[in-house]
Here is the input.
Amino acid sequence: MVRRRVSEEMDMVKGLIVGTLTAAVSFGAFAGASNVSSSKLIKEATAAYKQVAKDTSYQWTTTVKSIKAAQAAFDKGKFTEAEALAREALELVDATRTQAKIEAETWQMRVPK
Amino acid sequence: MKTITRATLAATVGLGFAISVSAGPVEDQAAFQKYFENKFPNTPVMDFQNGVYSILPEAREQWVQIEEFPPYELAIENGEKLYHSKFANGKSLADCFGPEGAVRGQYPFWDKDRGMVITMERAVNECREANGEKGYGWKKGKIADVTAYMSFNSRGQKVDVKIPSDDPRALAAYEEGKEHFYTKRGQLNFACADCHLLTAGNLYRADTTSPAFGHATSWPVFRSKWQSMGTLHRRFAGCHENIRAASYKAQGPEYSNLEYFVTYMSNGLDFNGPAARK
Here is the structure.
């Protein structure tokens, strides 16, 4: 009984993953990723990465990896992939900024008293 | 990914710890050292200078054997040669630091004239540059060899970092180092303090994290992972890369101030570098 429920849940998770991936790919296709739009997004991500470092002194290595991967995909003409990676980089920049904001307010709670 | 990261960050805040007013360096140091003494009651205080081996008896045995034929011996020999090598102007590092370079206990210090923290590595390169030579790279190679020789000759000197009360910039540098130590960064959302204070002694994958008390005493080190010598700033940078944070420049203000703070926290221990570490 329990095994069956676990199996059903696993199927559901698999379904969700497949569905999300399909939606992401479709979105990229329907969004009409192009030379111009992906190039613009990569530039935007690069600028955001530099700006967050200026504003907060925080930088994540993963953001650089995403930007480089986006550029590599762009160079190969894979514009949909390039846009997805550039968006990922922008999200990472966003998370970096959130981290910096939270830490500025909370780091002292770790100091032994 | 963003959701997970945000959820983690929000949870951190949601813990609801009260944020209290910052204490001064003396109170910080007392609380810091007491924290480790309470966390590791079986470790004699002076033994914290031996890093993770002060809290891991089983690894210590192996480390003691390694120290019998230490992997940093060649670095000391090479460092000695470099130390006494004549510059083009006929002088050498010995003209700056004395015949044996036994000055480890003087670093890091606050330079009031320049308003910055001076580390021993910086002092070595500034001596070279003042004599018309190029500075060494900051993280490994010759800088590590020379400082290995100088540290070896300085063994037993007390860690006694001072924060001059007549220069508020020194306190500011200390506070910057302190904030750096306790602040989470990188995609993995770790602070130095997370691994080396709050969960010091815990396993991260196959490695036990070392206590931060004593962290700054044994540099440079020969690290098995590197298979070479490295400076403290090399290690700082490596730690940051591990947590997916971009590292800062070696000997830049971020790491120099961090060294200032971390070394001050170990005041009272002995400098015992160079050392072998995993």
